[in-house]
Write a structure and sequence with these properties.
The longest helix has 22 residues. The protein is built from five helices and 17 strands. It has one domain: Carbon-nitrogen hydrolase (Nitrilase/N-carbamoyl-D-aminoacid amidohydrolase, 4-Layer Sandwich), CATH 3.60.110.10. The strands form four sheets. Strands 5-4-3-2-1-17 form a six-stranded mixed beta sheet. The protein has a six-stranded mixed beta sheet with strand order 8-9-10-12-15-16, covered by helices on one side. It has 305 residues and is of the alpha+beta class. α1 runs parallel beside α2.
């Protein structure tokens, strides 16, 4: 990390969203201001925080919600970062060009400049999460020649920003770690199908938390994972809707919880991360040193037939 102190104060924002984009952004701004007032130097908003989660059904009219970068929402977030002097991670339904749209995390440095963006690489297509209809996968190789899984350099350090469905893939976390990420960040929109029984809901939530804590452990890196709350109906009227499970959390490089929200209330999780712990942990658990990279060639195959 590039901070003078070994303590970096971070905040994960958990909120409910509205069909009114300006109302949702006003909620995000209010909570970001609260985080800054609590001393946060890095604030992370959840996935698609400006809108309802529209991917429950397929509707071409939804593309009207998309914006270019820069655009109204990104400029508002940039101004907020500059005013508060914080690094801010937001989320944009990006219109890149006619017919090409992305689910994009935007990172603004403390002077309001765009430090970088990350276009979601893994795109789900499951009941209630029909994201392939809306989002083009992020570029595997960027125009500058870097991998899609490349950390974003900011004034508080190198941020390994990924998005939601990416959180289930150890390859994404590992590639960020190998490129020097100092934090793993997962803006998220995930919840329960309203018809799921209670035991299934418990298993899903536990899996979501566990896999991300596993990425923290396997890569000796802190993780910040903000998720939305609230029950959002299926706009098509065909499904039962999604109850977003919240449970936003921040954990340290051994997977230890530093802060965790509940399943139903808005929250600003503000906590100090010891930026020296990753190095200290890697000295006693040197996973990256002991990797047998010469034996991993088959990881590039779809299936080992």
């Amino acid at each position: 990390m590039t901070t003078a102190s070994s303590q970096l104060r971070v905040a994960a924002v958990q909120q409910a969203c509205s069909a009114d984009k300006q109302q949702s952004l006003a909620t995000s701004e209010r909570l970001v201001r609260q985080a800054a007032k609590e001393g946060a130097q890095l604030v992370v908003l959840q996935e698609l925080h400006a809108t309802l989660y529209f991917c429950q059904s397929e509707d071409t009219a939804i593309f009207e919600l998309a914006e270019p970068i820069p655009g109204p929402s990104s400029e508002r977030l940039a101004a907020l970062a500059r005013e508060l002097g914080i690094v801010l991670v937001g989320s944009i339904f990006e219109r890149r060009m006619n017919g090409v749209y992305h689910n994009t995390a935007v990172v603004f440095d403390s002077d309001g400049s765009l430090a970088g963006l990350y276009r979601k690489m893994h795109i789900p297509d499951d009941p209630g999460f029909y994201e392939k209809f809306y989002f083009t996968p992020g570029d595997a190789t960027r125009n500058d020649g870097s991998s899609g899984f490349t950390p974003i350099q900011t004034s508080v350090g190198k941020l390994g920003v990924l998005v939601c469905w990416d959180q289930w893939y150890p390859e994404a976390a590992r590639l960020m770690a190998l490129a020097g990420a100092e934090l793993l960040i997962y803006p998220t929109a995930i919840g329960w199908d309203m018809t799921d029984p209670e035991d299934e809901r418990a298993r899903q939530l536990d899996a979501w938390v566990t896999v991300q804590r596993g990425h923290a452990v396997a890569n000796n890196l802190p993780v910040i994972a903000p998720n939305r709350i609230g029950t959002e109906p299926d706009p098509s009227g065909q499904g039962e809707g999604i109850r977003f499970w919240g449970n936003s959390f921040v954990c340290g490089p051994q997977g230890e919880f530093l802060a965790r929200a509940n399943h139903q209330g808005e929250a600003v999780l503000t906590v100090d991360i010891d930026t020296r712990r990753s190095e200290a942990v890697r000295r006693i658990w040197p996973y990256l040193r002991d990797r047998r990279i010469e034996a991993y060639g088959d990881i590039m195959k779809r299936v080992r037939d």
